[in-house]
Amino acid sequence: MSCHTPAVSETPLVGSIALVGHPNVGKSVLFQQLTGQRVVVSNYPGTTVEVARGAVRRIPGVSLVDTPGVVAFPPYSEDEVVTARLLLNEQLHAILQVGDAKNLRRTLLLSLQLAEMGRPLVVALNMMDEARARGVSLDFEKLAQALGAAVIGTTAIHGRGVDGLVAALQSAPACRFQMEYPLEVETALSEFMTIAGRSIPSAPIAPRALALLWFSRDSVVSDWLQTRLDAAEFACLLEQRRLQPEFGRIIQTVRLEKVETLVCETLVSAGEAGTGWAARLGRWTTHRVAGWFVLAAVLYALYWFVGVFGAGTLVGLLEENLFAGVINPWITAQVEAAVAAAWLEDLIVGPYGLWTMGMTYALALILPIVTTFFLAFSALEDTGYLPRLAALSNRLFKVLGLNGKAVLPMVLGLGCVTMAMLTTRVLESKRERLLVTLLLALAVPCSAQLGVVMGMLAGISLAATAIWGGVVVLVLVAVGWLAARLVPGERNLLLVELPPLRLPQFSNVLLKTLARLEWYIKEVLPLFLFGAVLMYMLDRTGILDQIIRLGEPIVSGWLGLPPETSAVFVMGFLRRDFGATGLFVMEAQGLLTPLQVLVAMVTITLFIPCIASLMMIAKERGSRTAFGMLVMITPLAILIGGLVYRIFSAVGWGG
Amino acid sequence: MAQSVSLENPDWIECGICGLRFDPAAHIACAGCPIQKSCQLICCPRCGFETVDPGRSTLARLVNRLLPKQ
Questions:
Q1: Could you give the CA distance from residue A518 to residue B52 in angstroms, rounded to a whole number?
Q2: Is B64 in the A-facing interface, judged by CB distances under 8 Å?
Q3: A30 and A18 in contact (C-beta within 8 Å)?
Q4: For residue A76, what are the contacts with CB-CB under 8 A and spacing of at least 6?
């Protein structure tokens, strides 16, 4: 913020144009093209968000306001709140929407909302050069007719299309665009106008748009109305909205359907309909049948690279040859010679020692596995396959009847379950957020944990990995199906833009893998050392023996595992992969049969992922919910593990 | 005074899920986090997908210097 400039006032500036659009679509570049260098940047009142203003060079007396990026309304971030407040408080000459021509669906979703506001609107479809290079071709005239607003293709970075924008802005009429919603929504909109119409005669946006935002539970509109309506009118609106909790979703669904119609009518060429190998493979990845075969092939490749090569070959070299053969005997000898106290020697090189457990698990067992997994994951990320996985799994969710929006947090969970829990905020109802959090906590392993579990199971056989995957997906589908029955409601469409499929870039993959490895070591090493100390203390105090004894009826009686596995489950509560590594060591020592490894791995996968995710559940949903989930998930994980044991021992499966 | 902004900035990150290219330095959402200084993770401002920022990793920066520039 410039210290010479006054803070932006909320007093309406006569004749300003709001530059609105998604983050990173070229708004700032277009702002420079239209205003030149005379720019005033200041914080929006009451926020830390910067807003830039400048005089439009070729339209005298009109200023341009560069609003912070907005994805859609209602606003969820501070940036979006500032944009929403600007649109409600400024006396606008026009709205200039900047959208990414390559991401037409997302752009049009915002266009519809802006068009409904009834201000003069001009849509700049930016990055046209990139869109054309991808083969995207649009019928601008038809789109302009449908929206009732000028639509101009621009390449802001080269100044192309700016003349057309200036001309359109000078002559833009008030937008008359209106969409038709289901009868119950239209009735409610009329009632809103009857209640509030007299008090908001000079609203800066169309009263109908205000009503739509109100029913979508837009907090900025709520605040705006509260200051303008009398208490009785506002209470009346609140009561009306309370009775219609589903309206936000219905309005959004109608808009998404309209977007699809507009895209069908105006997109002459989508660009990806090429005939090259990437275009063909890109289509297969989301095909309703071929998509699952492609997914199976991807998982099979992962199995070989991570499981067989990482967990087999690399771990063999590092753990068996280097650590067990050379490093650990040498360190043990040095510690025995240098340390007199038996307890200290035990703490460093004992069965639960800082070196023999903490460091060896992290460096010799986990590191090779996560290195191969992160390499594979970074390559997949760079190819553009992940959004296709979201689109493909959306079909599965559709069959289950779950909300389409639930797909994103579930796929994001493959990156980090804890952060994916945070993204459940995008879901509309409290029950949906709760259910998706439950599914995430129950059956979606994060990238690191998936890598370790796959690596461990690959040591047994491909069949073991397939059974483990099958059981986890079955639990996910069963719980999801049950959840969808318990939480009925309309299903929202999922809007995912698919980038072109491409070959991964070596430098991207390498740098991301290294960054992920550094992050993993920083996060996991202290936790593994803490885990080793905890296990050491539980062992020294005899509590571990008590846990093993108490857990025996469940661990041995129900799950069919050796009693010592209780210790591994304690480790699994800290982090799934810590527990999984313990199982790997037990198997290497000949303490577990292949069936027992499978049962233990299924059980540990269905546990709460890690302490961090449990804390996130407590933060987002409350400690009572977190405790409830822990109490529900732990017995369910044990129940499923026991069933797997009984079923596969009955059929005589031995790996 | 406004600075020239390049849309092809090599330091920007492309989200693996939604394809959004964004400036990792422009996001201040993590400012209140106590481990922010040592954290290498960053979330896409559009879809929330969490990924690593190679620019915040010592190891990745070191190797990046050794890679041939395009």
A1: 10
A2: yes
A3: no
A4: A425, A426
Helix or strand or coil: residue A488?
coil
Dihedral (CA of B27, B28, B32, B35) sign: positive
pTM over 0.80: no
CB contact under 8 A, A416 and B41: yes
Cα A39 to Cα A58, A59, A64, A298, A333, distances in angstroms: 15, 16, 10, 50, 70
Q: Is A29 on the interface with B (CB under 8 A)?
A: yes
ipTM value greater than 0.95:
no
Q: Is residue A12 pLDDT above 50, yes or no?
A: no
Q: Cβ separation of B6 and A157 shorter than 8 Å?
A: yes
Host H or E run for residue A102: none
Q: Does the beta-carbon distance from A103 to B1 stay under 8 Å?
A: no
What's the pLDDT tens digit per position in A500-514?
677 888 888 888 888
What whole-number distance in Å separates Cα of residue A260 and Cα of residue A254?
A: 10
Taken in order A558, A564, A565, A570, the sign of the CA dihedral is positive
Q: Which helix (H) or strand (E) holds A600?
A: helix A594-605
Q: Is A648 exposed, middle or buried (0-12, 13-18, 19+ CB in 10 A)?
A: buried
Average pLDDT score over residue span A229-258: 85
Neighbouring residues of A149: CB distance < 8 A, sequence distance ≥ 6: A111, A115, A120, A121, A122, A123, A172, A175, A177
Q: Is the pLDDT of residue A48 over 80?
A: no
- Listed as own residue / partner, the contacts of A622-626 with beta carbons closer than 8 Å and 24 or more positions apart are A625/A434
Tell me the CA distances in angstroms from A209 to A60, A100, A112, A191, one per residue in order.
30, 24, 11, 14
Terminus-to-terminus CA distance in chain B, angstroms?
31
pLDDT beyond 80 at A393: no
Amino acid identity of residue B17, one-letter, is: I
**Residues A221, A632: Cα–Cα separation, whole Å:** 40
Least confident of A292-306, A473-487, A639-653: A473-487
Mutation for A interface: B4, B27, B57, most A CBs within 10 A: B57
- From CA A596, how far away is CA A300, in angstroms rounded? 23
Residue closest to B41 by CA, chosen among A508, A523, A498:
A523
Chain A partners of B48 at a C-beta cutoff of 8 Å? 408-409, 412, 419-420, 422-423, 426
**3-class DSSP assignment, residue B21:** strand
Q: Indicate the range of A217-231, A293-307, A340-354, A428-442 predicted with least confidence.
A: A428-442
Other Cβ atoms less than 10 A from the Cβ of A271: the count is: 16
As a 3-state breakdown, chain A gives helix, strand, coil percent values, each rounded to 5, of: 65, 10, 25
